[in-house]
Write a sequence for this structure.
């Protein structure tokens, strides 16, 4: 079994979901007392969030590259950046290490292609929804991407930072998100990407008839498949 390097803390609320999913899925695959081999580096999210507001992406790239190097030194065989937004600097992080980086948008695109989805809605931070770094990975695979309107984007972003990153689950926010999901479906989306690793804490597939693609679950499953490739069941 390969050792998964988990670069987390953005926020720690979703990082604990990654930790649970990775261990559960390895246990299900191998049985017995098996669990995932994980090296975790968890950043102080306040440092990242402040630089996001400032638009200082080079500083964030340097911070995450340093953390990735520490994971490599600690024995990781591959790297997960446990957040969608910070994949904006994924190329810089990958260049700083000799490990494979399992990209969250590529894993999500694989799932969409398998399901025959050609038009998808995207929820996330305003950085993920409005900038090209995420969308272009999907478009390169022949998938059209629709995002909420400006007012809805502000609502999605605000709830992520004011509530979900702090572990706050509000029923009103859930209904607001589900309304935005419906609006994206009305605009032609065959499914909606939960493109922030905290959103799955708020809405789930059972809440709507629209297909939801939870990137945390997709990313974790991709990592487990990679870690267990050629592994024999115990």
């Amino acid at each position: 079994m390969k050792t998964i390097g988990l670069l987390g803390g953005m926020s720690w609320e979703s990082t604990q979901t990654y930790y649970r999913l990775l261990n559960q899925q390895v246990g299900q695959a191998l049985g017995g007392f098996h669990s995932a081999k994980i090296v975790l580096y968890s950043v102080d999210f306040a440092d990242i969030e402040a630089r996001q507001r400032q638009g200082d992406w080079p500083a964030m790239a340097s911070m995450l590259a340093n953390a990735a190097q520490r994971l490599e030194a600690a024995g990781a065989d591959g790297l997960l950046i446990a957040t969608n937004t910070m994949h904006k600097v994924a190329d810089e992080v990958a260049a700083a290490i000799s490990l494979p980086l399992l990209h969250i948008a590529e894993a999500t695109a694989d799932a969409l292609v398998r399901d025959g989805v050609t038009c998808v809605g995207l929820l996330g931070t305003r950085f993920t929804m409005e900038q090209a770094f995420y969308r272009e990975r999907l478009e390169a695979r022949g998938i059209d991407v629709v995002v909420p309107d400006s007012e809805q984007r502000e609502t999605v972003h605000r709830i992520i930072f004011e509530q979900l990153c702090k572990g706050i689950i509000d029923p009103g926010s859930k209904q607001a998100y589900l309304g935005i999901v419906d609006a994206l479906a009305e605009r032609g989306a065959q499914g909606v990407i939960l493109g922030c690793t905290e959103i799955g804490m708020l809405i789930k597939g059972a809440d709507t008839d629209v297909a939801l693609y939870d990137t945390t679950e997709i990313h974790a499953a991709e990592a487990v498949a990679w870690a267990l490739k050629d592994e024999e069941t115990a």
About this structure: The radius of gyration is 17 Å. The chain is about 50% helix and 15% strand. The first strand starts at residue 4 and ends at 8.
